[in-house]
Amino acid sequence: MAELKDILYKVHLRSVHGSTNVDVNDLQIDSRMVKPGTCFIAIKGVSVDGHEFINKAIELGAIAVVCEVLPEQLNDDINYIQVANSAEAAGFMANQFFGNVSEQMKVIGVTGTNGKTTIATLLFKLFSGLGYRCGLISTVEYHVGDKVFPSTHTTPDVISLNSLLKQMYDAGCTYVFMECSSHAIHQHRITGIHFTGALFSNITHDHLDYHKTFDEYIKVKKSFFDGLGADAFAISNKDDKRGEVMLQNTKAKKLYYGLKNIADFKGKILENSLTGLQMMVNNDDVHFRLIGEFNAYNLLAVYGAAICLQEDKLKVLQVLSGVTGAEGRFDYLISPKDLILGIVDYAHTPDALENVLATIKKLRRGHEQIITVVGCGGDRDKTKRPVMGEVACELSDRVIFTSDNPRSEDPLEILADMEFGLSSAARRKFISIADRKEAIKTAVSLAKHEDIILVAGKGHEKYQDIKGVKYEFDDKKVLEQMFELLER
């Protein structure tokens, strides 16, 4: 419980109708969750406008309403707060309502197109290994100390996020590592949270269904760093062509990592194999269990953050050398008989797919075939579909286009988008099989001794979203089943 006037601290008010000297039991942005004593915040979303549900919230017991546009008829028993931006107000209010706990922990945010989950997960595993009680908010799962919960979004909604931070604080967490998606930044879900540090991985073609232009996407990511305080640190990828742009207006301490350019945290890959990476990290020679150049970047970002957080470099490297990556990120298994290497990866952008396939090519010892199973999500950025198709065909020997999460779209139309504009060389390499299980089965049947199969796009996900229904589906389990059939 909190007094309304206290949780409105930092909110830009336009007008108040009623009183702010009232006790609020709960905050909600979903009218269906309102109960007596709730303050309902009406947010205009992408597909739903919360202002349309103000009366519903009042019927369910809301005592206060925060909105950008006041209803035509005001209820004398309700306290109305008109604000400039409801989403921004929700961020500040949720932060205050749950005790402003981000200022009492060290919260590290990770943003970028690819690598967010791995970096956040590695930080969580590293600092847990160093003896700290930590929280993790990622695409795969949420950790509150020893408890693990399935993830709902890359970054939860503003109320759930602040409630989660409060749970972490109450559980004794001193560090929180969280992914900050571009949607979350743009929708003010992380507004009001105090970040001790922030990391940038890279930026490539993604989410243009939402942000419309690549420049807008960059601007949103950059705004996260622009909002950091002078007491924070900001670490960016020096090898990404927009790595320096991200930090150009931040007040935070600027640091960089990289493999190619001069950087504060410099790496060099000495050896890259299925057993892991042998790397120079600044002047130290270390073996890591992760595979691929993209993971070398992730490891450097994590190392940099640990040094900024005043940890001993040798202890950091010692713990980090034994840490494994996030679920569904270059997750591999080998068939017992034919020694076929099966890799499951979340790669769902052209750049991520290119990175994974480039890593696989480097792991080849001879003339093993690379067979890629890949699809594109429905109701998402359509412009990347033909690019994904071209990348898969260019870097693989055989390709099977299939369904990812078609959502409300026709899977065959998505496949047609992936096939559109393919070069004649690419067209000789692919077949399309809409059923994902059949596509994986076909890939296994095509594979010969020691060939490599990549199943890309879904990674850790345990479902397939078709017409609003989430059907149970796990790429790794299906691949295991097909390997078992192969042995019979």
TrEMBL record:
List where in the cell it is found.
Answer: Cytoplasm
The enzyme's E.C. designation: 6.3.2.13
Identify the enzyme class.
ligase
Give the reaction(s) catalysed.
UDP-N-acetyl-alpha-D-muramoyl-L-alanyl-D-glutamate + meso-2,6-diaminopimelate + ATP = UDP-N-acetyl-alpha-D-muramoyl-L-alanyl-gamma-D-glutamyl-meso-2,6-diaminopimelate + ADP + phosphate + H(+)
Q: What is its main location?
A: cytoplasm
Q: Which GO terms describe its cellular component?
A: cytoplasm
List the residue ranges forming a coiled coil, or say none: none
From the record, which residues define motif Meso-diaminopimelate recognition motif? Answer: 404-407
Residues binding UDP-N-acetyl-alpha-D-muramoyl-L-alanyl-D-glutamate: S31, T154, T155, S181, Q187, R189
Q: Name one GO biological process term.
A: peptidoglycan biosynthetic process
Q: Could you describe the post-translational modifications of this protein?
A: Carboxylation is probably crucial for Mg(2+) binding and, consequently, for the gamma-phosphate positioning of ATP.
Domain Mur ligase N-terminal catalytic positions:
27-97
Q: Which GO terms describe its molecular function?
A: ATP binding; magnesium ion binding; UDP-N-acetylmuramoylalanyl-D-glutamate-2,6-diaminopimelate ligase activity
- Which residue numbers delimit the Mur ligase central domain? 110-306
Q: Which UniProt keywords apply?
A: ATP-binding, Cell cycle, Cell division, Cell shape, Cell wall biogenesis/degradation, Cytoplasm, Ligase, Magnesium, Nucleotide-binding, Peptidoglycan synthesis
Domain (Mur ligase C-terminal) spans 328-459
Record: residues binding meso-2,6-diaminopimelate: R380, D404, N405, P406, R407, G457, E461
* Pathways per UniProt: Cell wall biogenesis; peptidoglycan biosynthesis
Residues with the modification N6-carboxylysine, per the entry, are K221
Per the record, the similarity remark reads: Belongs to the MurCDEF family. MurE subfamily.
NCBIfam families cross-referenced by the UniProt entry:
murE, PRK00139.1-4
HAMAP family from the UniProt entry: MurE (MF_00208)
The task this protein performs is described as: Catalyzes the addition of meso-diaminopimelic acid to the nucleotide precursor UDP-N-acetylmuramoyl-L-alanyl-D-glutamate (UMAG) in the biosynthesis of bacterial cell-wall peptidoglycan.
Q: What is this protein called?
A: UDP-N-acetylmuramoyl-L-alanyl-D-glutamate--2,6-diaminopimelate ligase
Designated gene of the protein:
murE
